[in-house]
Amino acid sequence: MHLPHGHLGPVSHEAEDFAAKVAALQAAGHQIAVHAQGERAIDMVLEAFAAAGKINGLHHRLEHNALITQRQIERATALGVSLGFFVDHIYYYGDALPDIVGSRADRYMPVGSAMTAGAVTALHGDHPASPIDPLRSLRTAVERGSVSGQTQTALGQAVSRGDALRAMTLNAARQLGQADLIGSIEVGKRADFTLFNASPLTSDWQDLTVAGTWKDGQPAHTGLSSWLRPGPAWTALKNMLF
């Protein structure tokens, strides 16, 4: 990445200004999601959340969390802040991580520690930073392997298939405050679900494929051709413009 040894990236906000923004958004009733990777940035975010105080029913989000420490995980959990992890870093950059972050690669993307601490823990993509492939994210959280197959990063942070699947479904719904509507197949919830050709808990990864996706009880077209239809295209355009 052409970074000098010992490179220290700048934070993108001044602490006082950031805390003021957090306080204002929370006072207006907004859930706040912040992308933070390094220890200094995560400390700044947690300080701002702590200063704003907890509000019943409003749970903020900390996303990416590449280098979050055990102390920070415990503090986030105490504050009711959910933790989302972008494990594609492990898959695409795993071979180079020791050169980029040094010994901290041994605790990189600590999904297991977050779950053990009792944090609402989710897995996410960051598209278009990496291609959309939820099954890749699921497998990476379990095996911690790089794209070359040569490196397993912080293997002690691996989680079970069941925990990884829960992080991408029910925990993600909890993170959004919508666990009563989505995230699991239950009476009274929306009929949003994915059908696999075999069990994602036991099947060989290379044999596992998505057989179909349903949205509100109706089959959803997820291929490229679906974006050419007026409905999805108009929805995407509205989301970008408004």
Structure description:
The structure is a single chain. The protein is built from ten helices and seven strands. The longest helix is centred in the first third of the chain and has 14 residues, at 39-52. A four-stranded parallel β-sheet has the order 1-2-3-4. Strands 5-6-7 form a three-stranded antiparallel β-sheet, with no helix packed on it. Helix 2 (39-52) links the parallel strand 1 and strand 2. Helices cover 37% and strands 12% of the residues. The chain is globular. With 242 residues, it is of the alpha/beta class.
What structural keywords apply?
alpha/beta; about 10% strand; four-stranded parallel sheet; about 35% helix; about 240 residues; 10 helices; three-stranded antiparallel sheet
Quickly describe the structure.
With 242 residues, this protein is α/β, with parallel strands linked by helices. Helices cover 37% and strands 12% of the residues.
Report the biggest beta sheet as strand number plus sense, adding barrel if it closes: 4 strands, parallel
The helix/strand order is HEHEHEHHHEHHHEEEH
Radius of gyration: 19 Å
Total count of helical runs of at least 4 residues:
10
SSE-based structural type: alpha/beta
Shape category:
globular
What is the mean predicted local confidence, pLDDT? Answer: 91
Unreliable runs? none
β-sheet strand percentage: 5-15%
Spatial strand arrangement across the major sheet: 1-2-3-4
Give the beta-strand count. 7
Helix content: 25-40%
Oligomeric state, counting identical vs distinct chains: single chain
Distance between the first and last residues' Cα: 36 Å
